Amino acid sequence: QVRPGLRTPQLPVWLCSLTGRHGVLFGTDGRLLSDWKRERVFHLYFYNGQQEQTKTAHLTIDTHSHHWEEDRSEDPSSPGKRRPSLEMAIRTKWPGATISWNGTDPFF
Q: Membrane-spanning regions, if any (predicted)?
């Protein structure tokens, strides 16, 4: 039997399967689960345990960014507009969010 604490996590945690690889997307702010105002700008971390990932990726999520702030000079279908699968997964929960990789090279 599953204990109640395991059914209701105290910190936001998502298990992800992205392009056939598994990883963990998590936050360290438990208030993100209970206070919708915390969802404006917050931090998430991603780790997949693959050899090429030497450290946990630190992501900053901004859910109140504006679509018109994005560079419109590029064609949306061009390779420069390709988005990492992790960003696309995050946007299933927070559509339109801007995601900063904070110095980490985005991986696809």
A: none
* Alpha-helical regions (H) of the chain: 4-7, 85-93
In a domain, 23, yes or no: yes
> pLDDT, tens digit, for every residue of 2-37?
677 677 778 999 999 988 889 999 999 999 888 888
Q: How many domains does the chain have?
A: 1
Q: What single-letter amino acid sits at 15?
A: L
In this prediction, residue 76 has a pLDDT band, given cuts at 50, 70 and 90, of very low
As a whole number of angstroms, the distance between CA 81 and CA 23 comes to 24
Bridge partners of residue 99, in order along the sequence: 61
Query: Is the pTM for the entire model greater than 0.85?
Result: no
26 strand-pairing partners: 13, 45
Kindly report the backbone phi and psi dihedral angles of residue 16, in degrees, each rounded to the nearest multiple of 5, phi listed first.
Answer: -120, 145
Nearest to 87 by CA among 67, 103, 107: 107
**Residue 107 maps to a domain:** no
